[in-house]
Amino acid sequence: MPKSKNKKELLQNPKGTRDVLPFDAVVWQAVEEKAREIAEYYGFRPIRMPHIEHTELFTTSVGEATDIVEKQMYTFRTRGKDSLTLRPEGTAPIMRAYIQHGMRTWPQPVMLYYSGSFFRHERPQKGRYREFGQFGLEILGAEGAVADALIIRLFMLVFEELGFKKMMVHVNTLGDKACREDYRKDLVAHFRKKQNYLCTECRRRLKTNPLRILDCVEEKCQEIATDAPQCIEYACDACKEHFREVLEFLDKASIPYFLDHKLVRGLDYYSRTVFEIFTETAEEKKEEVPVEVSESADSESADIEGGESKEADAPPPKKEEKPAHKEEGRPLALASGGRYDSLAYDLGIQEPQSEEEEAWKGAVGGAIGLDRVVEGLLSQKGKGIKKENPKVFLIQLGPQAKQQSLLLLEQFRKNRLSVASSLSKDNIKNQLGFAAKLGVSYSIILGQKETIDNTVIVRDMETGMQEIVPQSKLLDYLKKKKKK
Ligand code: AMP
C-alpha cells in the first residue's frame, strides 16, 4: 500500500518534478522549436518512443554497474509480472526501435530526433531533476567521424542561435571495447595502489566500473585520478584516427573544445567519441573560463597521432579552472552524448555478415538537457527568444457578439493573422485596457448593433480614431493597414 498523503502534500508535485508555468513553457517550446528546425533542416526525422520499456533493455545496454541502473531507474512490476522501467535515457530505446522496425534495411544513415521526458531517481537540485526533458539527435548506420562532428555541431548551433555565449565542448575518446580492456586493467592497477585514499563509493567502483572513478566529485578521488593513465594512450590506430578526424571537423567548424581525459560518461554502450557541452550562466560570465581551446587542426592532430597530448604533460586543471555552471563544484552539462557502435551487438544483433549489412554499422548521438537550457535562458530573461505579440485585439460585447466573434477568430486564424481576445470580460473599458497593455495597433469592437449589421468598429489604438468596416471586408482592411 502506498504511504497516504495528507491534504497539503497532495497539492504538491512529487519531489524532483516541476510544473513549467506558461511564461517558462513558452521559452521551453521555443527551445524545442529551434532544435527541431535545425534538426529537420539537416535531414533528421522525428521519432516518438514509449515512456516505458522492458527493464532489461537498460540493464543490458546502459550496464548493470552504472549509476542509472544501480540507483536511478523507476522500475515496477506489471500485473502480468513483467518488469518495466520509465525510460532513463533515449539511446537504448532508439536502438531498440531501429532494430525492431527493420530500419537497418532503410537507406543509411537513419537520422532521428526526439523530444520528451526522461526519468532518473537522482538527488534533486537546480538543473537536476527526477523528470527532465531531453531533445536528442541520433545517427544510426554511420561509422564516419563526420557523424560525431555533425551531432556536436548541431547542438552548438542550437545554443548559438538561442543566444548562449562562450560554449565549450569537452571531448574524449574511449577507444573501442578491445582498446578499453588494457586500459581498464592499468586503471585498476593505478587506483588499487591508492585505494585506501579513495571514497567508499570509488572503492566499490574499483571492482564494478573503475572508469567512473575518473569523474568522481570527491576531491581526494580527483587528486588520485590526476595522474591516472589516459584512455587515448590505449586507443588502437583506427580509434585514434577516428578521434583525430572528429577534432579536425570541430576545428574546421571553429568549435572550441577541450580534450578532457577524465570524461568517460560511465555508460557501457559508449565507444570512441564521448562529449559534453558547457556554457557560463549570465552572472558567471564575469569570470574568465580558463579551459584549453584548440588552436589549429594541425596542433591537435599531432597530439593524437603521437599519442601524447599537450594536456597529458600539462599540470592538471585546478578545481576552479573548470567552466562555471556548477553542481557540487562541478559544471553541469547542457548537452552530452557519444558513439555507441557496439550497442546493437549488446542487444543481441549479430555483427554484419555481408557487405550489404555493413551499411548499418556504427551509431552516434546525444541529447540536450532542456531544463538546463531553459533555466539558462530565463536567467538571461529569455534572451534569444522572440515571440511576436498580436497586433489586433478583438473586443466582444454581449452573448451574440461572443458567438459571432468565434467565427471571426476562425477566419483570422485561417489567414494567419494573430489576434488576441478576452472571452470572459464584457466591459468595453476593461477590454480596451487589456488591449492597450498588450500594445496592439488596432482593436476590433463587435457589439450588439455590429452583430446585427455584420460590421465591426476598428479603433486605431494610437490615435483613438474609429471606423465602421463590414465584416466581409475586415481582413482586406487590416491587411492594407499592415502594409502601411
Ligand atoms: P545523458 O542522457 O546523461 O547523456 O544526458 C544528456 C543531457 O540531459 C545532459 O547533458 C543534461 O543536460 C541533461 N540531464 C541529464 N540528467 C538530467 C537530470 N537529472 N535533470 C536535468 N537534466 C538532465
Give an overview in words.
The chain has helices at 7-10, 22-41, 55-61, 67-72, 91-100, 145-161, 177-193, 200-208, 219-226, 237-252, 297-306, 310-313, 343-346, 370-378, 399-414, 428-438, 448-453, 474-483; strands at residues 45-46, 52-54, 75-77, 83-86, 110-119, 131-140, 168-173, 257-259, 271-278, 326-327, 330-331, 335-339, 363-369, 392-396, 419-421, 442-446, 455-460, 466-470. It has 484 residues and is an alpha+beta fold. The chain has two domains: 14-379, BirA Bifunctional Protein, domain 2 (2-Layer Sandwich); 392-483, Rossmann fold, CATH 3.40.50. The strands form four sheets. It has an eight-stranded mixed sheet, with helices on both faces. A five-stranded mixed sheet has the order 15-14-16-17-18, sandwiched between helices. The protein has a three-stranded antiparallel sheet with strand order 2-4-3. The N and C termini lie far apart (68 Å). The structure holds adenosine monophosphate. The site of adenosine monophosphate has 17 residues, from strand 6, strand 12, strand 13 and helix 14.
